Amino acid sequence: MAWSIAEVARMSGVTSRTLRHYDEVGLLPPAWVGGNGYRYYEEGELLRLQQILVMRELGLGLVEIGAVLAEQVDRVEALRAHHLRLMAERDRLDTLVRTVARTIAELEEAKGMDDMTKINRPENLFEGFDGTRQSDEARERWPQAWEQSRQVIETLTAEDMEQWQREVTAQMIRIAEFMAAGTPVADPAVQAEIDAHYRGVCRFWTPNATAYKGVGQTYVEDPQFRQNFDKIAEGLAVYQRDAMVAYADSRLS
User: Matching Gene3D superfamilies, A to Z (predicted)?
Assistant: First the structure.
């Protein structure tokens, strides 16, 4: 039995564009291409796609995934190895869930208090986060921007990085609160947060309107990015994307 690219996209949650990209880089060729130019996939390709997605969830880049797939012989043994890594990742995510829940509880308990007294232990804000994932994604999708960002990051001290991480975490929570309250993405308060987000991005590289919209779309389409946002609040990736589109249309176009 064979499935069209549209059917595989629907089943897997991977966009057709991503599947075509996997074909172009030799990671996931279709079983065959029809006379109409459509790609078709059979069971072997679906199993290979499952492996790719598992390794993406584990933080591997496309080049690394290609190397793993080229070297492996026994599919069951490969899946066993992935299973062990997934269990380790499950433990990390459990820690991350506790981290975010603790932060929300502390912020709710301390509403109205001075900002410096809201968080009992600032280092707890970052327990369970894996900062290498976003870096790997950026390197693959925007290599020139990634190189510019890398050069900037190399100039930052550990204290600078900690402060930046605190700001990003706090901003995600604030935007999630707007979403929970049903605030429209074009609302001035939401757009003020997105302006701060854009200026934060510009510390590392300066996207135009199209590129900034592309970043927002990546938050939604890429499973790892979307998961990172939705760990804070379900639907946050889509809400953030829509707010970024509104910002790009009104401020960057």
Answer: 1.10.1660.10, Antibiotic binding domain of TipA-like multidrug resistance regulators
